[in-house]
Design goal:
alpha/beta; ABC transporter transmembrane region fold; Rossmann fold; about 10% strand; about 625 residues; 2 domains; four-stranded antiparallel β-sheet; six-stranded mixed β-sheet
Length: about 625
């Protein structure tokens, strides 16, 4: 029976609205509210400072220059050359220039301080968002993690969050300050001249409709771009990690075609989104020109009619520029905003996946001290389909009702053909997944009510393939006990009889293992993972015995380390080599999700059942 988990994909087909996404994102990043009042106050000061220059220009023209007197004198003298000191109040002009200069300095200072505060707050908040996302991924069951492409998950908490960071530090602030600048410019225009101000305001609905039309299309386009980035990164990661296999099987052309397809999909999506952005930028320029033209034409007409002064018209042109400047920048800002919203939505999608193996936290229990026994009470497991939890799963049944008890300090071997349910049994025992029905108890406590910290300290699983992290051998061993000193690490190697192997390495425990342990052989990686498990000193050890072929010397070392590791604690081993089952106290035989045989090797090997057949086949294979 095959128990391959069905793909569980994150659903982006019906995305939430942009404002809903932003509100959710802000709620998930409470750090963004730190010092927000002060940052907004600085933004308002910086925005208000920008309208001082147009006001100063109007005051200089209308108050510091007597334009009508200059015109009269020029007409009377028949010349345009007049004594400027008679018609210019230089003191007033200098005061206005000084005031405008001071406003510019204040605006520059508050803008710099505002950007600095926002950079600090946004990076702190987004670091917290990354941390929460990674922690949530770790809280997901093995089903979700196995069915999602690793590169796609990583992109959601790296490149997608980077897009949010860029938005918060530039485009978000621009949208905020530019909106305030446009509103303030309109308010000052209406104060100076209601008719001229209303003429400019009449263009606002057209601007709003244009922005809304482009915003909807940019939203959808940039969501596709972020999805394609995730897929491209996922395929790229597989190509890099799987390079040895690709070369070994000579499938470079096929893999390159797949990678080229992912890159082309991203290119096409990015070009489409870029097309909308370019069109929006062009539309913004046209709308800006329209506002200036309206202000110039209407203002000139009102000035000729004597309704407004020349200084007011000139100031209006400056104010109109302050109003349209945000519109011209809106294309790039909305571009960044939609990219950020798409990224935020993808991060939220991860956080919205319910953690079906959630830590009970402070409400949970700690495992009792001493050796641990195990109880499976009518335990079943089905693979969940999309949107289902373990409790509501209706997919392939990997484990049928299993009821059994394993006494403390027992050494139990679990055997069965591929797809029989033995690996599912082990994962439920470590709470890498939760059962669809029934209860798993360790030390008499329901495993779902055990605090993760207590469970991970007392129950350790050694996977079939030794998984190592970049760093030294000592660094990887300390994953089992972070506070272990070098002497503790060396003592554990000696306890497992691996000190001779360690002495063969030039740098001993400081030997670098490389990416994913690639500097060590398969067997050597397995040795390091066994030491890591031993130094953790668990009371319950779950071993998924390695099937990889290793050299005879390494196999002897692994067997000897196994013997030391499995003494004086409860051990459950998924046995692929039946010599392991032969040495166990008890053998559980799985078939189609059921425990069909249970007993010592000496009994099961002569009963003529499934185990006897497996043992005979194994003996013939080893003899040959």
């Amino acid at each position: 029976m095959t128990t391959t988990a069905p793909a569980i994909e994150l659903d982006d087909t019906v995305p939430a609205g942009s404002w809903v996404t932003v509100k959710r994102g802000l709620a998930l990043s409470p750090e963004l509210r730190t010092g927000l009042g002060g940052t907004l106050a600085l933004a308002l000061i910086a925005t208000a400072g920008r309208v001082v220059v147009p006001i100063a220009v109007q005051q200089v023209i209308d108050g510091g220059l007597n334009v009508s007197a200059v015109a009269e004198a020029s007409a009377a003298n028949g010349s345009t050359s007049v004594d400027g000191s008679t018609f210019v109040d230089l003191g007033f002009v200098f005061r206005m220039v000084a005031l405008a200069g001071l406003a510019v300095l204040i605006t520059a200072g508050t803008t710099s301080l505002m950007h600095l505060r926002l950079a600090r707050v946004s990076e702190t908040a987004l670091s917290g968002l990354r941390t929460r996302a990674f922690r949530h991924i770790h809280d997901l069951s093995m089903l979700h993690q196995a069915s999602e492409q690793r590169g796609a998950l990583v992109s959601r908490v790296t490149s997608d969050v980077d897009q949010i960071s860029r938005f918060m530090q530039w485009a978000g602030l621009q949208l905020l300050t530019n909106t305030a600048q446009a509103a303030l410019a309109i308010a000052v225009m209406l104060f100076y001249s209601l008719p001229l101000g209303l003429a400019v305001v009449a263009v606002v609905p057209l601007i709003a409709l244009t922005i809304r039309w482009f915003q909807k299309r940019l939203d959808a386009a940039f969501l596709v771009v972020r999805e394609r980035v995730g897929r491209m990164l996922a395929v790229s990661a597989e190509v890099v990690v799987g390079a040895p296999v690709i070369r070994a099987y000579g499938i470079e052309s096929r893999v390159r075609g797949r990678l080229a397809g992912a890159i082309e999909d991203h290119r096409a999506a990015a070009i489409k989104a870029g097309g909308y952005s370019a069109a929006f930028s062009g539309a913004a320029e046209m709308l800006s020109a329209l506002v200036i033209a309206v202000a110039l034409v209407v203002g000139s007409g009102l000035a000729v009619a004597g309704s407004v002064s020349v200084g007011t018209v000139v100031a209006f042109l400056f104010l109109a520029q302050l109003f349209v400047q945000p519109v011209t920048m809106l294309g790039e800002a909305v571009n960044e905003a939609q990219t950020a919203v798409a990224g935020w939505r993808r991060v939220i999608d991860v956080l919205d996946i319910p953690p079906d193996v959630a830590d009970p936290g402070d409400d949970g229990q700690a495992l009792p001290a001493g050796p641990l026994d195990i109880e499976f009470d009518a335990v079943e497991f089905r693979y969940p389909l999309r949107g289902e939890t373990a409790a509501t799963a209706s997919g392939t049944q990997a484990l049928r009702p299993v009821s059994l008890a394993i006494e403390a300090k027992a050494n139990v071997a679990v055997v069965g053909e591929t797809g029989s349910g033995k690996t599912t049994f082990a994962k439920l025992l470590c709470r890498l997944m939760d059962p669809s029905a029934g209860t798993v108890r360790i030390g008499g406590v329901d495993i779902r009510s055990i605090k993760f910290r207590s469970l991970r300290d007392r129950v350790v699983m050694v996977p079939q393939e030794g998984s190592l992290f970049r760093g030294s051998i000592a660094d990887n061993v300390r994953m089992g006990k972070p506070d272990a000193a070098d002497t503790d690490v060396l003592a554990t190697f000696a306890e497992l009889g691996l000190d001779e192997w360690l002495d063969e390495l030039e740098h001993g425990i400081e030997t670098q293992v490389g990416e994913r342990g690639g500097s060590l052989s398969i067997g050597e990686r397995q040795l390091v993972t066994l030491v890591r498990a031993a130094i953790a000193n668990p009371d319950l050890l779950v071993l998924d015995e390695a099937t990889s072929s290793v050299d005879p010397a390494t196999e002897v070392r692994i067997s000897r380390a196994f013997a030391h590791l499995t003494s004086s604690r409860t051990v459950v081993t998924i046995a692929h080599r039946l010599s392991t089952a032969e040495a166990a106290d008890r053998v559980l035989v799985f078939d189609e999700g059921l425990v069909v045989e249970d007993g010592p090797h000496s009994q099961l090997s002569t009963d003529g059942g499934i185990y006897a057949g497996l043992f005979d086949a194994w003996q013939r294979g080893t003899a040959g």
